[in-house]
Amino acid sequence: MGDFGRLYEQQYAVALFNKVRFDIEGGGGPQPQLLHRKIPLENKSIFSGSLFQYLEENKKWRSRFLFVPDSYNINYYDSKASHDKRLSPKGTINCASYKVLTSIEQYLDLISNSLPGVKAKMGSSPFLKCATQFPLILWHPYAHHYYFCAATEKEQQKWHAVFQDCVRHTNDGLSEENKVQTPAFTDAVRLYRQAKGNYGTWEMMCGVPSQILSNLVMEGLLPELRDLISPRLKGKLYERQRNWMLISDAVYSLVQGQSQGQYEVVLQKCEAARSSLEASIRTDMDQIITSKEHVTNKIRAVVLHKAEKLLKVSIQPYISSILDALMEPTSRGFSEVRDVFFRELVDMSKNILNDGTKETVAQHMEKISMLAFHPVKMQSCYEKVEQLVLEGLQQRFDVSSPSVFVQRAQILMREQMDDAVYTFEQILHQSLESQGTEELCKTIQRCQDRVIKKFDYDSSTVRKRFFREALLQIFIPYMLKQLNPSCASELPRFQELIFEDFSRFILVENIFEEVVLHSVMKDIMMAVKEAAVQRRHNLYRDSIVLSNSDPSLHLLGENPSIDWAKEYGGDHEEADSTGEDVAGTGEDAEGDAESHKRRRMKQVVSMIQVEGSPVQPESCVEVPGINDIPEEDGEEDEEGGGGGKGWRWGGELRW
Question: What φ, ψ does residue 402 adopt, rounded to 5°?
């Protein structure tokens, strides 16, 4: 944490300089055509319902009521009544870095890999006997694991989609709105890992800073801990595995607590110095830029010919094939987003043919307004991009897994869907206000065509940016790793060319990386541009500009989300997420207000009602644990030894 803190302070000053410079000089690029909703999930929850949960303290399964609010943290309660009474949850799960598993076999594979040398025999009994044949397991490489079971396969599928969305959302990491802390943090993490010899993508860049820093510590600490403790673990196989998980979770909790405290100290120190740093930057901006350009030219003279040689031999031959591998599934995913949006509007038009009233429109728009945040309806879109395969990259370019790119593409798809839905809402609402209910289907059709055209343009722009950033994230770490041995020794002498007053804002390590980036950027831009010129996967050419093509639309951009039920559906009280009014405690006015808010809260995903399926009881139902599972012969004798955002360049690229 001391090493990281020093890096963070350095990168904080650089990020502040980049932010101030960007504010002064501005930035170009295509303007989005769709409107963007500021608080999409206001007064909304994602999902709630009952699952069986395995309690490790008494090795029993009990029924639990789970509630997923707009934060995407999973809260679990003894019963729905406990939730309705506003009691504190029994626990809360932040899903960053977790994997969602739907079979015990998947789980056992991961458990076996966590303790090298401690392997289960084929058919050996797991330490967990599921309550039903529809498990849902949340697995983390360091932290506590959570075990749930659904009553039916359909319920399992719906919860799986919801859990996956929780993981996807929390993995998306740090806010891009913070133009100083976020780039400073991610660059400090990247430089820290590079100093340890770890280049390339990192799956564990997930969650809030304390979680990311804990993952950073555990990356080095866990192997040492495993070598020390694993030989001392005794007992049956499942006991050794379970004890190792308990130890790992305990250490991770300690690390997270210390990381959080030390990071806050460093952050406060940087924030306290921010105003004076910013004053220095604004006073000396021109001189700092001139000094940086002078040093950049000197470094470029040393580095560029080496970078271009590496580029020609090891990068250029692979750009087009990797771009093809990225474009195919990503574009199919965005195309599916368009199709899902289109189908929802077609369904609404069909129903309105029979009953063309504002109330009918409101009922359908209530559902469509939350389409982007409906994990089940969006699942077909997400599945398309999950087929992304980057064969051979792990060995050649140190890409640990395509999951970094898959999750980023899925987040962009969700954003595009919500932008399309919000834009349609605003246009339709404006049309209804001015035209009433006459020719409703034609009005919907006109609004739909207008939005689809804008979606196609924005989809192309977003995908092209995604492809460029993904290619950079694949190639830049590889180039830095190859060039660092021959260039690192020459860099310190360039620090002498920087005035001491400017040395906080100009770092030779950052300039070296920028020179390497610009050396490959031209080839990447050309490859993506060529794909757009050929109209491959419906990518638009950069020359097709729609800026200010619809100025009347952007006047609606500041409007809040429309409450269709309230505006067109009558004045009756809304039911809560399960269709029943929630009883407040009645203790005071504040309690009544909270009760009213809960009563107004709508749920994005509807409850599961499957005909003939067993109803999960509200009371705590015990299901036998694993005490009576017999050990397989010979198992006692088995003794053993012993996975967002990552790059920012020049203030414009962010993962």
Answer: -75, -5
pLDDT, tens only, 139-167? 999 999 999 999 999 999 999 999 999 99
For residues 109, 111, 115, 117, the Cα torsion angle rounded to the nearest 10 degrees is -40
Alpha-carbon distance of 608 to 606, in angstroms, equals 6
Q: CA-CA distance, 261 to 217, in Å (whole number)?
A: 14
Looking up tokens 């049309």 gives 431
With a CB cutoff of 8 Å and minimum separation 6, the contacts of 192 are 3, 4, 7, 216
Q: Tell me if 9 sits within 8 A of 33, measured CB to CB.
A: no
Measured distance CA(76)–CA(157) in Å, rounded: 19
CA distance 11 to 21: 15
Helix (H) or strand (E) holding 149: strand 146-149
Give the torsion sign (CA, 133, 616, 146, 607): positive
Q: Specify the DSSP class assigned to residue 623.
A: B
Residue 435 corresponds to which amino acid? Q
Total length of the chain: 655
Quick check: 655 and 405 in contact, CB under 8 A? Answer: no
Is residue 352 within 8 Å of residue 444, measured between CB atoms? yes
Is 306:479 a contact under the CB 8 Å cutoff? no
Residue 84 DSSP class: H
Q: Which amino acid is at 457?
A: Y
Closest CA to 385 of 328, 455, 460: 328
Contacts of 609 (CB under 8 A, 6+ apart): none
**CA dist., res. 469 & res. 405, Å (int):** 10
Q: What is the pLDDT of residues 17-68, one digit of tens each?
A: 999 999 988 766 678 889 988 888 887 889 999 999 999 888 899 999 999 9
Neighbours of 329 (CB within 10 A): 19
Count CB-CB contacts under 10 A for residue 105: 9
- Tokens matching residue 551: 């100025």
Phi then psi for residue 76, to 5 deg, are: -125, 140
Q: Which two tokens stand for residue 383?
A: 């599945």
76 bridge partner residues: 66, 91
Nearest CA among 208, 222, 195, 159 for reference residue 481: 195
Task: Note the helical H segments in 488-501.
Answer: none
Q: What is the pLDDT of residue 501?
A: 85
